[in-house]
Every structure is written in structure tokens, then in C-alpha cells.
Design brief:
Oligomer: heterodimer
Number of domains of chain A: 3
Largest sheet of chain B: 2 strands, antiparallel
Helix content of chain B: 55-70%
Shape of chain A: globular
Largest sheet of chain A: 7 strands, mixed
CATH architecture of the largest domain in chain A: 6 Propeller
Number of strands of chain A: 37
Strand content of chain A: 35-45%
Number of helices of chain B: 31
Structural class of chain A: mainly beta
Low-confidence stretches of chain B: none
Strand content of chain B: under 5%
Largest interface: A-B, 59 and 61 residues
Mean pLDDT of chain A: 89
Helix content of chain A: 10-25%
Number of strands of chain B: 3
CATH class of the largest domain in chain A: Mainly Beta
Structural class of chain B: mainly alpha
């Protein structure tokens, strides 16, 4: 019964129907007897450490239009009471309880006051232990005048392996806690007919122009374009698959996709658990108005993936790995056997809008020469910066603990000649160099340090840097610039190594970022309970107005087959 | 004498006509039902609550309410927890059934014997309950065991309120109130109770004394789900709208309609109650009376039919029960109990591979596998389910966990969680595998979730303390601490984790099991190579089970080297002696085989000659009494043990 009441209580508090007060059903009792506002203790001792809060919002910079940064005070069992004071200039707001949830109205007032003052909110956390109050070291939240796009979209998916059940593409208003469904697969699925949905993407942040894929049952690519919905079958006889990873042209109704044959296998011991690999992948160009597909790259020894159209529309950046058959075994087995040797470089191909043709590819970053592999190039809206994910090998870095975000200054980037490929293998480490228990990441890092010591690694170009201020010891991947270039949202597994959460950071325009903060939630412990990952967070300038039922209706219809169109531009 | 008989029949007649006598019948039937459930289905109930999860969080509620009928599931998962103590859960269940009976008696204004007719509803609910079998692993509706009870309780409450309105208000007002109530039940009940609210709406229209509500009921039933689909439930397939919060007896492409019968029976019982109530009212209005013996007879006939239906629906399977009992014994690390259950010869039914695997695991953990592995019944019976049950979805996760294949255990927990919903069991495995994989933060996440449950908090707290001793999960450090006399793990931790850590002595590689747990374990261990004594013995055992001579010899030799003082276990000797004779590749002349190993081999071969032209099946039967517990028998006569 206690739990039943507690659940109702949590439900009500999670919707701010009731104030948050510590303790399941006891909260009801507190509500009755403690209707007074919390107050800051008059006497306390100064603590010498910052409070431990979740999410970690200590000294972060946030946009002026962000939702309230609710947080939970992590504490040991000795702490019995909690008071948090927010101070801006001469104004103060006091919140009680271990869940610090000032709420939207108070938060807006704080932000307005902060913007009128020095732009910071000072926060003091008071803990009561053994009838004595202690004040933790204060911290600040800095409010930046740069606004953030009001929405992000993402797919919610369990960090699963093969099975899927309910998958949703959601949109979340960053200015409050409203989350809604763009499309959920269960509206068109049943026990017999499962449906996977993925790769949502909008044209230049425009919620009126989005696309996503439906796989298996009722499969096709759903495209919403200025109020019109269509469902297209992008698979042609001359392409590897239907479209997979998309990139819209910034203005025109054109989309470049990669086409992929993808498989996954499972690590028996490593905590990375899954390796996702492409056995084939190329690029195609899709013209929405003409409903035609044109292959862009066709070289079967190249694995081309993750295209991204530059904001000026003149280039398509993408990553590519070169793989020539060595064995007589099946290709996917060969790639599984040599999975650590599949590494991707960063390329771009020029695009001529008038003739709708692509030029020869240019190598922009020879990551393989550094024994690295890059994925997910994303150019900032001003075209100055290119952010990508880099790890030791492979293409699906969301499952690579060593995946980090890197930044390239495109104004300094020039096409480079590829360095002859040297085969690396961490298995060549001298005996005893590492303990047997070392995991893949440790082994690779040790192998790299050895190679670097031997002068066998190309140094990192000066115009590329590891964005250390954004990275953690765990995965960072799937990033997106805001439309004004002042913010980035990216996925990270830093919380627990398994579940991906969106983090947001401020970009100062000069290639430097503030400390990232986790997507705020009304219930600050929401992500600790939530058993799904956020997949591909992307900014949107507003909400998608089509309803899930509208998408469901179009998905029920047959897909219109795209027509194959060959192009005179050179096959890459 | 005659007087006595007359007195007796008068008493019986009085009893049959009296209300309290029939209440006694209701109580007795429910009591017997409860007793049968506790005595025969305790293992199922315990497993049911392990395969269930209820969390007191807003997120859990929100997740449930994504679909119509979420509240019914939410309540049912809440109640399912109480099967942690089967007697408690069953008492609550029987209590709910009694409440249903009371509400229906009142709502339908049943008198005398007719009151006992309400028992048909709990009997139908019991049939829904006891027919489950392997659906316990495959049912996607959360709280599926108790959703029917919750749904019917909701319907009975709605009927009772309707009756209250009819009784308490003037006729004209009551009619409008009833219409309003019906609309409220359907409009507000549907999001929370799904199809059960639609059913309740229909029952309100059929409740005697109602009039003209049928049209409204039909309109409501037709329209409300469609409106909800358009406005609220963006994750619900249209065809699912009218069966929301009902279990689906579908597995892949196959639909098993026979499992729907108890649900049809629920509808039928309500129709019977409505008819009986209507007839009673008619007779009462006409001031006429049925023949006094007729109502009790009708009631008793229907009750017996109901009881017969329950007994027909009841899923009985020896292997299913054995799997459940063995699973619990493995969870409790009670290896001897696992073997006791494996030895149970009360049935001639051959065991499933799951049972054989539990048995082999227990023997290995007790260090007796190499001496006793073939002393137990072998078999490869398919699970008694109308679809092909997969070991990964039944006990495979437990097997992987104890065999040190932590990533695969975790993987199948995740796959199951995604497909069938999160369960206490999967969270427990995910917490433990994460601890063994040194993933402390995510282990804490799962433990924190378990700490929110009603009955598994203590379990979570027990494992939480291991997070403070990360070194304990480094085998070298653990062994050093044991040598130093200050073990990093407590006794329970040592018993559970130490053998697993030994079996984790293999390097990482990319792999896949194609859902075949046993085959994957056999192949990977048999081809494995390591110096850890426990791991090494597992490689030898698996090469033995695979009957792979080339893999056997190097592992046999290494085993002998690693255990110079150990008397070579029986089955290893038998295999070496047999392979030595079969292939002559390895000189076994200097090996000190036990005399009984040589003798048994000679007798086996001689008996084989005697049996002459017998088929392999005939030989398997003929040899079993003498040689069924030898490797020779296993090698020659146990074949095609298809695993799942």
C-alpha cells in the first residue's frame, strides 16, 4: 500500500501537481503538516566541497530559453534535510528537498534577473546532518544570451541488439518539459508484423520538411515536405539498399543517402558488447520532385557512409573505408574477423547545383594514417567548423567507448593525399606489455602509444583537435549544431556506459565549448530510471505538426517506387 | 427413522434455500481454489512475480498508460508482486474474487441458490490463470495473470454503482443517471481499463432494470476507442483498440485461439447472470415461484461445469514444473536440490535440454560432473508449448550467467526486456552481469530500480554492497585475498561469483549464438583453451559432451597435468579408454585406468556383440539398464539431442 500511495505521489509530483517532498507515501503526511515554504538555515557550517548533484549542472552555461535545470542532490544516508538557494543579484529563491525543482515560472524569473545582472545564477545547497546544517561550496549556472532552437527530435530505443518492439521518434521542447510523439511504430505494428523506424532528419531545422525510414512491415521512406506526405521506396535494382543515413540539401528538395548492407555481431567479453559493420555501402542522390535516385558512388572496395551536405550546398562530406577482399570466406565473416582494421577517412565531393552533378572526391582527413576512424561529419551553419566522431576503428561509434568528438577548422582544411596504409594490430603488442585482462580500448591505446613512440603514426593536423571539454571516458557521438551555431547537442554514454543521453554545450564561435549539460528533465532522476537511449538528437526550429496518425495513414499505403536515373558525373 | 430422514431433508432444503448456505458454498469453492493454487502452482506463482515488475514511479505509470488499459496492467503488475509469497498473493486473489462475487450478487439482485452462480466468474478467471504454462515467458501484456481479475473487478464495480443509482434515485432521475454513468464508464474507463471498460459498458446495458441504454452502449463502444485513437493513444494499432488490455495468444504468425476460451467463458457467465437475474425478477413480479429444487440443481450443474472447465484448462506438465523448480534452486545456488529434482523419477517423460543443462551446471558446480554426468536421465523433449519455446527466453539467461558468458546473458535480458517488458529477473541478471563486467554505474542503475520494488529491495541491497569492492571482481586479486585469509567477497559472494570469474577466463571476440544456448556453450568451451583449472575442466567436459576426439585429447592431457594428484574422474577415464581403443592415435597402455572402467568397457562391447543386428533404438533400450550411466552408452547410443 505504501508503494501504491508512493507511486501516485510520484506521479503527481512528476507532473508538478504536488510539490516534491522526500519519501514515498510519507510525502502525503508531509504535505498535510508542512505546508510552509522551506527556509535557508540561519546557522550552518561551511563545507569544503561542491554538492554531488545529478545531472551535473555545476558551472554549466545554458541558453536563455532552456527549460529549468532540475537536479537531484546525491547524498549519503546521514543527510536528512535539504535546502537549495538560488541567488541572482539581490533576489533569492529557495527550494526544499533532495529533488531541486524550482519549476518553470521561478526559473524564468531567475533567468530574466540573471540576464539583467551579470548573467549567472548562484546556487547554494544546504544539507542537514545530525541536526546540524552544512553549506556546500556554491556553484553557478551561467545564462547565455544565445538562444537555442526550441525543439530537438530523437529516436527512443532500448540499447538493444536484434529485437525491437516499440520504437518512437519524439520531439522535445527545450523551453519546457513537453515531449510528444512524431511517430511510434506500434501504431502500425502487431505481433506478426514488426516495424523498425529510424534516421529521422529535417532540412535545415525545418519541422515542415522531415524524413524518416520505416523498415520491414509497410517499409519505405516517409517524407513530409511543406504539408505534403509521401512514402517512397528508394531501393532500386542498381543500389545496395533503400536509403539509410540521410542529408538534405540545405534549400533544395534533394537528399543524399548512404545505402548500406549492415550487420552486427556480439563481443563475448568486452563491455562494448556490439560491433555494427557495413559490408557494402555507397551514396545515392534523391530528387524529391522528380522522384529519382541517382547513384553517386559505386566502388565496391569503398564503404561510403554518413553523408552531410555543407550549409552552402557546395559539398557533401562523408566517410569512407577502403577494403579489398583478402580471404575466400564470405565478406561479412571476413569483415568480422578483421573488424579492427576497418577504418574510415573523411572525404568530400563537390556538388554543382546547376547541373546537379558531383565532382571527384577529395580526402579531407586521413584518419587511417593515424590509425583512427572517423564518422558523422557535421558542418556548423556558418561553414567554419566540422565536428566528427573519432575512434579507433569502425563506423558505428555509439558502441565504442573510445569514441570522442573532434573539431576541424574547415577554413584551414585542404585536400590531402592518402598515406599508404599500414596494417596495425594490437595483437602485435609485445608479450607482457599489458595485463591479459585489458579491454579493447586499453589494448588499442597501448598499441597506439607504442606506435607513436616508434614514429609510425602521422601526427594530428593542427586544424583538428579533440574537443576535450566535451568528451568523457565513455562514448560521445551523434552530434548536431544548432541553427545559429551557438550550441551543439550530442549523445553521450557518460552517465552509465550503456544508455545514451543528449548533452548540450555552448560554442563560443571560436571552436571552444562550455561544459556540456544533460537534457533537463522535470524529474531530475528520470534518466536514471529510463531504460531507453536517445538516438540521433537533432535540433528543430519548431514542432513537427503532422500527427502520428497522419504518418500512420501514409505508412499504411504502398510506397511509391523511386526511378533510377543515371548521371553523367563520374562514378566515384 | 422416517422422521429422521424428513428432518434431514428439511435441513438440506433449508440450507439450499437459505442465503448463508450458498455464501458458504462460495467461500468453500474459493477456499479450495486458493488451496489448489498454492499447493500446485507455487513455483509458477513465484516465477510469475520474478517475471513481473512494478515500480512506484511516475515513469512506470506513464509507460503503462501509453496504451489503453494501462491502469489495468498497472494494478495487475502491482498485485502480481504479492506472489513473492504465494499464499499471500493467492489470498489477495481469492479476496478479490470474493469481492467480485459480492458485487455481482448485489448488482444482479441474486437470491438464494442463484448467489452461488456468481462463482462462475471466479472459475472463469481461474481458468484464465491456470492455463498459462509457457505463456508466462511469452505474454507481452504486463501483469497478464491478474489483468482479467482486475478488469472483471472494474466491471463488477461499475455494475454495482449502476445498481446503487437505480436503487437510490427516483425512477426518472435514475434513468438519466444510469445513462450518464454508462457514458462515464466508457469514456473515462477505456483509457484506464481498455477492453474491460468496453465490456463493462455492455454489461451496464444488459443489467436488468436498465432500458434503452443498449443503443447508447453500442454507440459508446464503437466510438470511444476510435476517438481515443485519434486524440490520445498514438502508439496503438487500430485493430488492437477493441482488445486493449487483453492478453494476445499469438506467437509469431500463429494464433492459439483455444486460450481465449476462458475469456469467452467470462462473457458467457455474465450473460448467464443477466438472464438469471431477469428470470428471477420476472418470477418475483408475477409472484410465482420456480420449483424449489430447480434453482439449486441448475446452480450445481453450472458450477460443476465451471469446475470441469477449470480442470480442463489447467496446464499440467512435469517438465515445466521441473524447470521452474530447478530454476529456483539454481537461483538459490542450492545445487543438491537441483540434482534431487533432476533425479526425480516420478514421471517417465524424458527431460528437456533445459533440465539437462541445469543438472550439468549443478554437477559442475559441485565438482561431480566428470563422475556423475551420465547418471541422470538424458533427453531432448521439446517444451510442452504449442509453439517452439527458445531456451534463451526461458532459462538460457541463467545458464549463460553461471557459465561466465555475461555479455550473452546481458544481451538476452535486453532482448527480452525490449520484447516482453522489463522484469525483476532481467534486472537482477543485468545488475549482476554488469558487476562482473566492472560496469559499476549501470549496475547501480538496475539495483536502484530493484530497490524500488516491494519485495526485492533486500536482494538489491545485498548486491549493492559488492559495488564497494570492485577488486573482488578481478579474479587475481580475489584469489590473492583468499590466500591472505581476507577474502574480498563474503561467503555468499564467493559461492556465487568465484566460479563464474574462473569461467570468464577467455579473450574477447565477435560472435553470435543464433539463440542456441547449449550448442554455443559447448562449441565455445570445447574450443577454448586456458590454464585456469576450472575453465580448463569446462573445456574438457564440453569436448566430452560433443564427442569430439581431437578436442578431447589435448584437454584431457592438460587436465591430468593441472591435477597431478587427482584421481582421474570416471567419465574422463571412460572417454580416454574408449577413444584409445577406437582410434589408436594415443597410446593408452601406460594410463592407469580403473579396473571397473576396463570391465565395463569389455562388458559393453561383449553385450554389443550379443545384441547383433538390433537397431540403434532397440540397443538404446536394451543397454540402458546396464550401461545407461556410462560414457560408452552416451557415445554410441545417445544421439540427436536437438537443443533449442
Amino acid at each position: 500500500m505504501n508503494h501504491l500511495l508512493s507511486s501516485i505521489y510520484h506521479f503527481l509530483t512528476s507532473r508538478q501537481l504536488l510539490p516534491s517532498i522526500k519519501g514515498g507515501a510519507w510525502g502525503w503526511v508531509f504535505i498535510l503538516i508542512a505546508c510552509t515554504s522551506p527556509s535557508v538555515p540561519t546557522s550552518f557550517v561551511e563545507g569544503d566541497s561542491l554538492p554531488t548533484i545529478y545531472p551535473d549542472y555545476i558551472d554549466v552555461t545554458v541558453p536563455q530559453n532552456i527549460a529549468p535545470l532540475h537536479f537531484h542532490i546525491d547524498h549519503d544516508s546521514l543527510a536528512t534535510d535539504f535546502v537549495t538557494r538560488f541567488t541572482v543579484g539581490g533576489e533569492q529563491w529557495v527550494v526544499g528537498g533532495e529533488d531541486v525543482r524550482p519549476g518553470l515560472k521561478k526559473w524564468r524569473k531567475m533567468i530574466d534577473a540573471a540576464l539583467a545582472a551579470d548573467g549567472t545564477i548562484s546556487i547554494e545547497v544546504f544539507l542537514k546532518q545530525a541536526n546540524a546544517w552544512q553549506r556546500c561550496k556554491p556553484f553557478t549556472i551561467t545564462i547565455n544570451k544565445d538562444s537555442i532552437d526550441p525543439y530537438i527530435s530523437y529516436r527512443l530505443i532500448s540499447p538493444s541488439y536484434v529485437t525491437y518492439e516499440d520504437l518512437t521518434i519524439n520531439q522535445r521542447c527545450l523551453e519546457n518539459f513537453d515531449e510528444s510523439l512524431i511517430y511510434g511504430n506500434m501504431i502500425n505494428s502487431d505481433e506478426e508484423n514488426g516495424q523498425c523506424i529510424n534516421c529521422h532528419h529535417a532540412q535545415w531545422y525545418n519541422p515542415e520538411r522531415i524524413q524518416f525510414h520505416v523498415r520491414q512491415y509497410l517499409g519505405g521512406t516517409v517524407i513530409a515536405y511543406d504539408g505534403k506526405l509521401s512514402k517512397i521506396n528508394l531501393k532500386t535494382d542498381s543500389t545496395i539498399s533503400a536509403g539509410v543515413y540521410p542529408t538534405w540539401h540545405p534549400r533544395q528538395p534533394w537528399i543524399v543517402y548512404s545505402t548500406n548492407n549492415t550487420g552486427q555481431s556480439f563481443h563475448t567479453r568486452d563491455r562494448q558488447k556490439i560491433e555494427v559493420q557495413d559490408t557494402k555501402s555507397n551514396l545515392i542522390f534523391y530528387d524529391l520532385e522528380a522522384n529519382t535516385v541517382t547513384p553517386i558512388t559505386r566502388d565496391t572496395t569503398n564503404l561510403d557512409c554518413f553523408p552531410f551536405w555543407s550549409p552552402d550546398g557546395k559539398y557533401v562530406y562523408y566517410v569512407s573505408a577502403h577494403w579489398e577482399r583478402r580471404d575466400t570466406i564470405q565478406l561479412d565473416f571476413e569483415l568480422i574477423k578483421n573488424y579492427k582494421e576497418v577504418q574510415y577517412n573523411l572525404y568530400r565531393i563537390p556538388f554543382d547545383e546547376a547541373s546537379r552533378s558531383f565532382g571527384p572526391r577529395e580526402l579531407i582527413y586521413d584518419a587511417v594514417a593515424r590509425n583512427r576512424s572517423v564518422t558523422l561529419p557535421r558542418v556548423s551553419p556558418d561553414g567554419h567548423w566540422l565536428m566528427f566522431t573519432e575512434a579507433q576503428f569502425g563506423v558505428f561509434h555509439i558502441w565504442h567507448n573510445d569514441a570522442d568528438l573532434f573539431l576541424m577548422d574547415l577554413t584551414q582544411a585542404q585536400p590531402v593525399e592518402p598515406t599508404p596504409v599500414i596494417s596495425y594490430s594490437p595483437d602485435l603488442l609485445p608479450a607482457g606489455f599489458l595485463p591479459e585482462t585489458a579491454n579493447n580500448v586499453e589494448r588499442e591505446a597501448a598499441a597506439d602509444s607504442l606506435r607513436a613512440a616508434q614514429g609510425r603514426l602521422t601526427p594530428q593536423p593542427a586544424h583538428i583537435r579533440n574537443i576535450t571539454e566535451l568528451n568523457s571516458p565513455d562514448v560521445e557521438s551523434w552530434h548536431c549544431w544548432s541553427s545559429n551555431g551557438a550550441w551543439v547537442v550530442f549523445s553521450s554514454r557518460r552517465d552509465d556506459g550503456n544508455f545514451t543521453r543528449p548533452f548540450i554545450a555552448h560554442h563560443d564561435g571560436n571552436g571552444h565549448f562550455s561544459k556540456p549539460f544533460e537534457l533537463p528533465q522535470d524529474n531530475p532522476q528520470y534518466h536514471r530510471q529510463f531504460m531507453r537511449s536517445y538516438n540521433i538528437p537533432e535540433f528543430l526550429s519548431g514542432p513537427v505538426t503532422f500527427r502520428p496518425q497522419d504518418f500512420a495513414a501514409i505508412i499504411k499505403k504502398d510506397a511509391t517506387p523511386a526511378q533510377l536515373k543515371t548521371h553523367p558525373s563520374p562514378s566515384l | 427413522m422416517k422422521n429422521k430422514q424428513t428432518a434431514k431433508s428439511t435441513t438440506l432444503a433449508a440450507l439450499l434455500e437459505s442465503s448463508w448456505g450458498w455464501w458458504l458454498v462460495i467461500l468453500c469453492v474459493l477456499g479450495v481454489a486458493g488451496y489448489k493454487l498454492v499447493s500446485e502452482e507455487s513455483e509458477t506463482l513465484l516465477r510469475a512475480q520474478e517475471l513481473n515488475l512494478w515500480l512506484p514511479t511516475g515513469l512506470f505509470w506513464k509507460t503503462m498508460m501509453q496504451y489503453p488499459g494501462g491502469a489495468a496492467s498497472w494494478l495487475a503488475t502491482y498485485l502480481t508482486q504479492y506472489f513473492y509469497y504465494p499464499w499471500l498473493g493467492v489470498s489477495i486473489l481469492c479476496g478479490l474474487w470474493l469481492i467480485i462475487c459480492c458485487l455481482l450478487v448485489w448488482a444482479y439482485r441474486l437470491q438464494g441458490p442463484w448467489r452461488a452462480l456468481t462463482l462462475l466468474v471466479p472459475l472463469a478467471l481461474m481458468a484464465c490463470f491456470v492455463q498459462t504454462g509457457y505463456w508466462i515467458y511469452y505474454q507481452k501484456l504486463q501483469g497478464h495473470l491478474l489483468v482479467p481479475t482486475v478488469g472483471v473487478l472494474f466491471a463488477a464495480l461499475c455494475l454495482a454503482v449502476q445498481r446503487l443509482l437505480s436503487d437510490a434515485l427516483p425512477t426518472k432521475t435514475a434513468r438519466w443517471a444510469r445513462l450518464l454513468w454508462m457514458a462515464l464508464v466508457c469514456i473515462f474507463g477505456y483509457p484506464f481499463f481498455g477492453a474491460w471498460a468496453l465490456g463493462a459498458t455492455g454489461l451496464l446495458a444488459l443489467l436488468p432494470g436498465s432500458g434503452g441504454e443498449s443503443v447508447l452502449a453500442i454507440l459508446l463502444i464503437a466510438a470511444v476507442p476510435q476517438i481515443c485513437y485519434q486524440r490520445f493513444f498514438e502508439m496503438t494499432e487500430r485493430s488492437f483498440l477493441y482488445v486493449a488490455a487483453m492478453p494476445s495468444f499469438r506467437n509469431g504468425q500463429d494464433v492459439f485461439t483455444e486460450y481465449r476460451l476462458p475469456y469467452y467463458a467470462i462473457i458467457l457467465t455474465f450473460l448467464i447472470l443477466a438472464v438469471v437475474s431477469w428470470i428471477s425478477n420476472v418470477f418475483a413480479a408475477e409472484k410465482s415461484k420456480l420449483r424449489p429444487w430447480l434453482p439449486p440443481v441448475i446452480v450445481l450443474v453450472l458450477l460443476f461445469a465451471g469446475i470441469f472447465g477449470v480442470s480442463k484448462a489447467w496446464y499440467h506438465d512435469v517438465n515445466f514444473q521441473k524447470e521452474l523448480s530447478m530454476n529456483r534452486a539454481v537461483q538459490e545456488l542450492d545445487w543438491e536440490r537441483v540434482l534431487t529434482i533432476a533425479r526425480d523419477g516420478s514421471s517417465t517423460v524424458k527431460p528437456t535440454r533445459q533440465i539437462v543443462m541445469y543438472k550439468n551446471l549443478a554437477l559442475f558446480r559441485l565438482g561431480r560432473a566428470a563422475n556423475e554426468m551420465f547418471f541422470y536421465p538424458e533427453g531432448a523433449m521439446q517444451q510442452n508449448a504449442p509453439w517452439r519455446a527458445r531456451m534463451t527466453q526461458i532459462g538460457g539467461k541463467l545458464i549463460y550467467y553461471h557459465y561466465g558468458k555475461e555479455n550473452f546473458c546481458y544481451r538476452w535480458c535486453m532482448e527480452d526486456g525490449v520484447e516482453f517488458g522489463w522484469k525483476v529477473e532481467t534486472l537482477k541478471f543485468m545488475a549482476r552481469t554488469s558487476i562482473l563486467n566492472h560496469e559499476w554505474t549501470v549496475a547501480r542503475k538496475y539495483l536502484d530500480l530493484l530497490k524500488k520494488t516491494t519485495f526485492h529491495r533486500a536482494w538489491a541491497e545485498r548486491y549493492e554492497k559488492y559495488l564497494a569492492t570492485p577488486d573482488a571482481f578481478d579474479l587475481h586479486k580475489l584469489e590473492a585475498s583468499v590466500k591472505a585469509g581476507k577474502p574480498l567477497l563474503d561467503e555468499e559472494g564467493m559461492k556465487e561469483f568465484e566460479p563464474i570469474l574462473h569461467l570468464m577466463s577467455y579473450p574477447d571476440r565477435l560472435d553470435g549464438d543464433n539463440t542456441l544456448v547449449e550448442m554455443y556453450l559447448l562449441q565455445t568451451f570445447a574450443r577454448g583453451n586456458g590454464d585456469d583449472p576450472l575453465f580448463q575442466e569446462m573445456t574438457l567436459l564440453c569436448s566430452l559432451i560433443m564427442k569430439d576426439i581431437d578436442l578431447f585429447w589435448p584437454r584431457f592431457m592438460k587436465f591430468a597435468t593441472l591435477h597431478p594428484d587427482l584421481h582421474m574422474p570416471l567419465h574422463y577415464q571412460e572417454a580416454a579408454y574408449l577413444y584409445g581403443h577406437l582410434e589408436n592415435k594415443v597410446d593408452i597402455s601406460h594410463m592407469p585406468f580403473d579396473q571397473n572402467v576396463r570391465d565395463t568397457y569389455d562388458r559393453f562391447m561383449k553385450f554389443n556383440e550379443q545384441c547383433g543386428p538390433m537397431s540403434e533404438e532397440q540397443k538404446a533400450i536394451a543397454f540402458y539398464p546396464q550401461f545407461g550411466n556410462t560414457f560408452y552408452y552416451f557415445y554410441f547410443l545417445v544421439r540427436n539431442q536437438k537443443t533449442n
